[in-house]
Amino acid sequence: MMAENTESTVPVTDGAAPEAAEGQRRGRGGRGGGDNRGGGGRGRNNDRRPAQEEDDGTIEKLVHINRVSKTVKGGKRFGFAALVVVGDGQGRVGFGHGKAREVPEAINKATAAAKKSMIRVALKDGRTLHHDGKGHFGAGKVTLRSAPAGTGIIAGGPMRAVFESLGVADVVTKSVGTSNPYNMIRATFAALSEQTSPKSVAQRRGKKIADLLGRGGSKTAEADAEAIAE
C-alpha cells in the first residue's frame, strides 16, 4: 500500500509542479514585470513611430525629465514630467512639457505640446540673431548676443538645446538668477520673441531697408538691404 501511494502521488506532484511554476511565472509577469515591460515596450514603440512616420526634419531634444511621487494609501505612486524642445533648424522653435506614469508617454505629450507652440524667429544670414536681446521669467534672466561666424553656440544646457533646434550656429548667451531649466527656457523664449529683422521694421514704418541701414552708418547699405531682402 505504501508503494502504491508513493507511486500514485509522484505523477500527480510531477504534473502539478510545472503547472504551478507556470502559474507563478504568469502571475509575476501579469502583476509586475510583464505589465511594466509591456507598458514600456508600447511606450517606446509609440515614441519611435512619430519619428519614422513624420519625417519632416524636425529636431527634438529632451531637456529635462523629473520623477515625481504622490503618497497614497498603501504606498507611493510615481510619475514623470518631461521638458522637450522642438525645432526645424530654419527659424522655428517651440517647447512643451508633459506628465505621465511612464517616461515615453511623458515625452510624447511634451513633444506634441512643443509642436503646437512653435514660434518663428528672424535669423541673420540663417546663422545668428539680428540684434542683442534680454529675457526675464521668474528669477531667471538671460542675455542673448549676436556673434560673428565661427563663434559657435556659447550657452548652457537648456539654452543650447533651444538654439540647436532653432538653427542658430553663432550666439553668445548668459543666464543668471536660476538654474531651473523651465525658467531658463521660458526666459530664452521671451528674449527670442522680441527679435525683429530690418525687413519687418521697414515694412512697419513704411520705409526702405537701405534707409534704415544707412542711418546706422553702414557704407554698404544697399548691398546689405539686397542681402536681407533675399
UniProtKB/TrEMBL annotation:
<dbReference type="InterPro" id="IPR005324">
    <property type="entry name" value="Ribosomal_uS5_C"/>
</dbReference>
<dbReference type="GO" id="GO:0006412">
    <property type="term" value="P:translation"/>
</dbReference>
<comment type="function">
    <text>Located at the back of the 30S subunit body where it stabilizes the conformation of the head with respect to the body.</text>
</comment>
<feature type="region of interest" description="Disordered">
    <location>
        <begin position="1"/>
        <end position="58"/>
    </location>
</feature>
<dbReference type="InterPro" id="IPR005712">
    <property type="entry name" value="Ribosomal_uS5_bac-type"/>
</dbReference>
<dbReference type="InterPro" id="IPR013810">
    <property type="entry name" value="Ribosomal_uS5_N"/>
</dbReference>
<dbReference type="Pfam" id="PF00333">
    <property type="entry name" value="Ribosomal_S5"/>
</dbReference>
<keyword id="KW-0699">rRNA-binding</keyword>
<keyword id="KW-0689">Ribosomal protein</keyword>
<dbReference type="InterPro" id="IPR018192">
    <property type="entry name" value="Ribosomal_uS5_N_CS"/>
</dbReference>
<feature type="domain" description="S5 DRBM">
    <location>
        <begin position="58"/>
        <end position="121"/>
    </location>
</feature>
<protein>
    <recommendedName>
        <fullName>Small ribosomal subunit protein uS5</fullName>
    </recommendedName>
</protein>
<feature type="region of interest" description="Disordered">
    <location>
        <begin position="195"/>
        <end position="230"/>
    </location>
</feature>
<comment type="function">
    <text>With S4 and S12 plays an important role in translational accuracy.</text>
</comment>
<dbReference type="GO" id="GO:0042254">
    <property type="term" value="P:ribosome biogenesis"/>
</dbReference>
<keyword id="KW-0694">RNA-binding</keyword>
<dbReference type="Pfam" id="PF03719">
    <property type="entry name" value="Ribosomal_S5_C"/>
</dbReference>
<dbReference type="GO" id="GO:0005737">
    <property type="term" value="C:cytoplasm"/>
</dbReference>
<dbReference type="GO" id="GO:0003735">
    <property type="term" value="F:structural constituent of ribosome"/>
</dbReference>
<dbReference type="GO" id="GO:0015935">
    <property type="term" value="C:small ribosomal subunit"/>
</dbReference>
<comment type="similarity">
    <text>Belongs to the universal ribosomal protein uS5 family.</text>
</comment>
<dbReference type="GO" id="GO:0019843">
    <property type="term" value="F:rRNA binding"/>
</dbReference>
<feature type="compositionally biased region" description="Polar residues">
    <location>
        <begin position="1"/>
        <end position="11"/>
    </location>
</feature>
<dbReference type="InterPro" id="IPR014721">
    <property type="entry name" value="Ribsml_uS5_D2-typ_fold_subgr"/>
</dbReference>
<dbReference type="InterPro" id="IPR020568">
    <property type="entry name" value="Ribosomal_Su5_D2-typ_SF"/>
</dbReference>
<keyword id="KW-0687">Ribonucleoprotein</keyword>
<feature type="compositionally biased region" description="Gly residues">
    <location>
        <begin position="30"/>
        <end position="43"/>
    </location>
</feature>
<dbReference type="InterPro" id="IPR000851">
    <property type="entry name" value="Ribosomal_uS5"/>
</dbReference>
<comment type="subunit">
    <text>Part of the 30S ribosomal subunit. Contacts proteins S4 and S8.</text>
</comment>
<feature type="compositionally biased region" description="Basic and acidic residues">
    <location>
        <begin position="44"/>
        <end position="58"/>
    </location>
</feature>
